[in-house]
Structures are given as C-alpha cells and as structure tokens.
Amino acid sequence: MLEKIIVDADFCLKLGGSEKYRFLFEVLPLISCEIYMHRHAFGEVRYPASAKKQLSDLISIGKVKIVDQSILSSADKAIYDMSLKALERVMINPLKPSKNKGEVCSLAYAKATRIPIFATDEAHLQPIIDSQLNTGIDNITCLRIRNVVEMIRDGMINLPRKYAKALWRIAYNNEEITNANDIFDREIWPLEK
C-alpha cells in the first residue's frame, strides 16, 4: 500500500464508471493510506452519477480528503504558485482555460505538500511532470489504472484476477483501447498455462 496519493478526476471517472461495480469505492482505499483530491478536480467529477456517488461516499467516510491551496502555509503556497505557473505555461490553452485545470491544480498541490503519487490516467503527463516539476527532490510519479491492475497482479492489493480484469474492462469501456481484453490477457496478466 502506498503512503499518500492525490487523485485526478479522470481516474475517478474511469474506476467509478459502473453502476453495478463499485470499483472506485472498493479499490481506492486499498491503494493508499492517505488519499487527497484537489477541490477543482473534485468539481470535475459530475458524470457518470456512479462515479460522483462513490467519490462522495469515500469523502463522507473520511477515506478521501478534499484539499486546496487556501490551507497551505506561506512557504508551501509559494511552491504551489511557482508550480502552478510552470504547469499552466505548458498545459493550459488560453482559449480553453478550464481544460487540464484539475490536473494543474492537483500537481501544484502535490508538489507543495510533497505528495509523491498522482493517480491519473493521462497517458502523456509524466514527461510534463518530469520537465516542469521533478528536480530530484520530492518528485511526483503518475499512477495509472494499468499500474493498479499490476499491483493486484503482483499481490500488493489482495484481489483476484477476475476482479482486476473486470476493473480493467470497466475503466476502458468506450475508450481508445478497442481490444482491452486481449491487452489484459496477453500483456498485463496472462493466464498461466
């Protein structure tokens, strides 16, 4: 189990996308002892209703803590502001200022408060984090859904293979991965022969 993470909206939307399976509610607390979510990213979790409900349930039982920069000390606020500006330069389009705002706020908060893991499913975010924030001190690493499935496979999270495969399929339902089952069976967790 990880010590602490900050969670992005897309991660919650993908894990919480099923009315039938409560993957977000069940799995997120198994990943990390402390789970944070920036207020801006939380505001981005609207649909599907199942994701919003599971996230709200996690907040109500104290498993996820909503945070923002208003609670930071002046020193941490300075780090937050510098990180925010660096990320905005490369991630925010002035014509679409809301796009990527949750990620930018979350990452700036993570940098300021030394949260080492950003749970997101943005495929191309790690190189941006490496170039804009990671200096060798308090580095941030992305945790993607594939990594969660691999944690289950490797026994870091005690759940069966069929659960991991169902989680994978729900997360990538209607996504760019048209052969999600094959990828799971061939690359991520092949059946033993």
- CATH level-two architecture: 3-Layer(aba) Sandwich
| Number of helices in the DSSP assignment | 10
CATH topology: Rossmann fold
Low-confidence stretches: none
Mean pLDDT: 92
Number of domains: 1
CATH class: Alpha Beta
| Strand residue content | 5-15%
The CATH fourth-level homologous superfamily: 5'-nuclease
- So what's the overall shape? globular
Describe what this molecule looks like in 3D.
The protein is of the alpha/beta class. The chain has one domain: 5'-nuclease (Rossmann fold, 3-Layer(aba) Sandwich), CATH 3.40.50.1010. The chain is built from 10 helices and 5 strands. Strands 3-2-1-4-5 form a 5-stranded parallel beta sheet. The longest helix is centred in the middle third of the chain and has 18 residues, at about 75-90.
List the helices and strands and how they pair.
Layout: E1 2-7, H1 9-15, H2 23-31, E2 32-38, H3 39-43, H4 49-60, E3 65-67, H5 74-91, H6 101-113, E4 117-119, H7 126-132, E5 141-143, H8 145-153, H9 161-171, H10 180-188
Parallel strand pairs: 1-2, 1-4, 2-3, 4-5
Helix pairs in contact: 5-6, 8-9
